[in-house]
Amino acid sequence: MKKSLFYYLVIFSLFQASSGVTLLRVEGTFETVIEGNWPLVGEEFEVEIPYELTDPVSQDTPNSSSFILFNQPILRYGGDEFVLDLTVGDLSLNGETGVSIISFSPQSNLGGPSGHFLGLTFQSNGPLWDDPGSLPASLDEWRLDEADFAFQMRYEDISGTLVVAESSSYNLLSITPIPEPSSVLMLCLTTVGIFFRKRVYS
Length: 202
Known about the structure:
By secondary structure, this protein is of the alpha+beta class. The chain has one domain (21-180). It is 20% helix and 41% strand. It starts with a helix and ends with a helix. The model is unreliable at 1-18 and 182-202 (pLDDT under 50).
């Protein structure tokens, strides 16, 4: 019994110690199309924005800052999946209360036709997390579910036709830590080693 408990604690500690990517995921439905005639209203969308806790957050001014998440976000709708190039994050600070607005802006390119440009914005009267110098790893730390939400997608096809769709609510908001592959491999090797050691000494 004591050995089983020890093995469980070892495996649990390795899993907890892994510091991989954190995935912010938003699922919702296009509520309004404010430009263009593409029938997006009622269609579901998914946005996944991966980030690392060590992503830089640079304080550009006393009241705002910008940072870039180097992991590629994903947009899904209409049965298609689009891998976007980058995410620019903007923070607006409200005096001593901390962060009150945060906006994620994934893009498929930096300009020109055939591009998806997204805006995910959360706004709150209070801070959205405690330390604006680092990014949280859980939904409780973010407190995004307590904030007002706005989503907008601007899509320009190869002919230059622009469609702007938006939503003011979401169906699902989740934040999930994903261990680094090296940590998962170490966990697997440790588990196998424990198994064989148990077989040898039993």
